[in-house]
Every structure is written in structure tokens, then in C-alpha cells.
């Protein structure tokens, strides 16, 4: 009898990487749609409003991705 099942761990890692890739693609699309460079706005200009909107976007897209992957 096998005590260690690797398939659920492999599936979890695979779906995690898939979710991260989809999130990065979504961020790249938003970065291209906005008129300013959001990363430069947050880091160099310390724009808190843009940081909050970007964080809300990342959380929202992450919830959608997790729901789509989970089923």
C-alpha cells in the first residue's frame, strides 16, 4: 500500500503556476491599456491611489482565476 500520493501535489503545483501565469498576463494587459506606467507610478512617484487600485485588481483577478481553476 502506497502511503504517499504524488498526483495531488503535482496537480496543486501545476495549477498554481497556471494561475500565476494567467495573473501576469492579466497584469500585462492592464499595463498596456492604461496611459501611464503603473509600476513607475507606484514605485517612483509613490502614488498610493494607483497602488490601491492595482492591489484591488490583483485580488479580483486572483479570485476569478481561483474560482475558474477550482471549478
Automatic annotation (TrEMBL):
Keyword annotations: Cell membrane, Membrane, Transmembrane, Transmembrane helix
Compartments where found: Cell membrane
Signal peptide limits: none
Topological type in the membrane: Multi-pass membrane protein
Coiled coil: none
GO CC terms in record: plasma membrane
Family annotation (InterPro entries): DUF350
Residue spans crossing the bilayer: 12-30, 50-69
Source organism, top-level taxon: Bacteria
Family: Belongs to the UPF0719 family.
Protein's UniProt name: DUF350 domain-containing protein
Amino acid at each position: 500500500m502506497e502511503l504517499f500520493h504524488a498526483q495531488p501535489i503535482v496537480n496543486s503545483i501545476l495549477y498554481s503556476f497556471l494561475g500565476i501565469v494567467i495573473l501576469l498576463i492579466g497584469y500585462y494587459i492592464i499595463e498596456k491599456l492604461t496611459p501611464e506606467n503603473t509600476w513607475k507610478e507606484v514605485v517612483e512617484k509613490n502614488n498610493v491611489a494607483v497602488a490601491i487600485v492595482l492591489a484591488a485588481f490583483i485580488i479580483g483577478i486572483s479570485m476569478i482565476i481561483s474560482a475558474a481553476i477550482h471549478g
